[in-house]
Amino acid sequence: MADQDDLLAAWAVLVGDIDAVWAAARPGPSIDAVAARLASAPRAFLDDRVVLSALAGDVLGGRPLTALAFADDPRVRLGAALALWLVASEELVEPFVPAFRSGTPALAVDALALRVASVADPRDWLADDDRRDEAARTFLLWCGFLPAGEDAVAARSLLVARDSLARHRELADAYAEHRHRAEVARRLADARAKEAAARYSTE
């Protein structure tokens, strides 16, 4: 099983400016509809024998998925499978409005598999209303949506109130450090790219 710290570190690399993510999010499906669909995940997606890479390939069509690097971890596998069910259900049940495929579903799958599943057992997403709400809200955000009827301020407040990571102080502190390092690395990479472009333009 992967270390929680490793999963959170992997997610921190994917996260950009969280304020920008909230600002860019557009109205999406209702939280009740997403939570109900999550709770209805069929046995095929819950099976411990599911091959995550094959499932992700079928559902996402080859879009990159960081969670695949941790596919041997049962939390990651189940968290990703449940997120993939939300995407696949648009063809198997009925599409959400707007459709998840019009957003960033691969990033949303990684968010559930790496950030949420590392601190909240995915089986609890099926049995506990608060954990299911947390998972549904996290999926919507990282897919690029706000829950229907909520503005960014309300949606952010409700997600923060349900954030399992925030309840684990040591993990939350470690995650904050991972995000800081990832942000520094991004800024250095941007600076190097600008410097290289400036050198190229003067040659």
Q: What is the number of helices?
A: 12
Strand content: under 5%
Biggest sheet descriptor: 2 strands, parallel
The SSE order reads HHEHHHHHHHEHHH
Question: In terms of per-residue confidence, which ranges show pLDDT below 50 for 5 or more consecutive residues?
Answer: none
Average pLDDT score: 89
User: What's the number of extended β-strand segments?
Assistant: 2
Computed CA radius of gyration, to the nearest angstrom? 17 Å
Strands side by side in the biggest sheet: 1-2
Could you characterize what this model shows?
Helix 1 packs antiparallel against helix 7. The mean pLDDT is 89. A two-stranded parallel ribbon has the order 1-2. The chain is globular, with a radius of gyration of 17 Å. The chain has 203 residues and is mainly α. Helix content is 69%, strand content 2%.
Features of this protein?
203 residues; mainly alpha; two-stranded parallel sheet; globular
